[in-house]
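To: structure subgroup
Subject: Chain for Friday's discussion

All,

I'm putting the inputs and outputs inline so they're searchable in the archive.
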Amino acid sequence: MKIPKLASKDLVCLTDLSVREMLSIFDLSSRLKKDLAAGKRTPVLEGKTLAMIFEKNSTRTRVSFEAGMFQLGGCALFLSKDDIQLGRGETVADTARVLSRYVDGIMIRTDLHSKVMELAKTATVPVINGLSDLFHPCQALADFFTIYEREKKLEKVRLAYVGDGNNMVHSLLIGAAMLGMDIAVACPKGYQPDSHVSALAFQISSRTGSKVTVTTDINLAVEGAHYLYTDVWTSMGMEKEANRRRKAFADFKITRKVLRKCADRCAVMHCLPAHRGEEIDDDVIDSDCSIVFDQAENRLHVQKALLCALMQ
């Protein structure tokens, strides 16, 4: 099996990858997906160990990485903040130095993006950003692969994102700009993406021909969209803001009426977990337009390809 060789040791942000590397990861993801469906084993990481640091809970991130390492012949260690000294005051750098002597790769799902950067800077083994407050590159890679396997291309495909200007949309903005996709983001005033991330996406798009739009007008964003994406209005750790956010995001809900403003056969995406009836209606997420569970499945295949590329 041909496995892409990446220039970067780590995946902290999608900018750690070139477009060619992203596409090669998609090709490997497709092969790994077909092999798994055919019952073919691919133990290319036999004897390798991945440490998984979880300072934030997750269903898809944990299960997809853990199952992925098992299917590749390796093993994964689940480390909650209560299982390691990081939660008791040990520095990120010291944790990185110690884990680098035990394992072949580290995945971290945490709050502060600076922790991921410090871990990657100090560790001598590959570090994968499983989620931080600034980026969610693994989910975005799976999302772009889901579109790629349907369209067989990404250039000029129009993606609309409606909702909170969070870590998810940050990675979608950067990735879409790199891949030549058109992306339109609609968020309520005061909840728009980080201005530095938006500026970087605009800068990248000037080189790739991607069209990037950031607006507060949901109708402008969704018009003609081939893919319509949303996320929860209140992310983990922001529960105290839930009531205020429900009021602010009331006009940014994905409904059948909103879907009709998109292109014909527009597909609906969500990174899950979904708060049904809040950011998205049941009759949308459960409809034939939904590819939400294809996205969730593809976390497994894309992360396996990423693990192969970084750890073999």
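Points worth raising on Friday:
The mean pLDDT is 96.
Strands lie at 49-54, 75-80, 105-109, 127-131, 158-162, 182-186, 212-215, 227-230, 267-270.

D.
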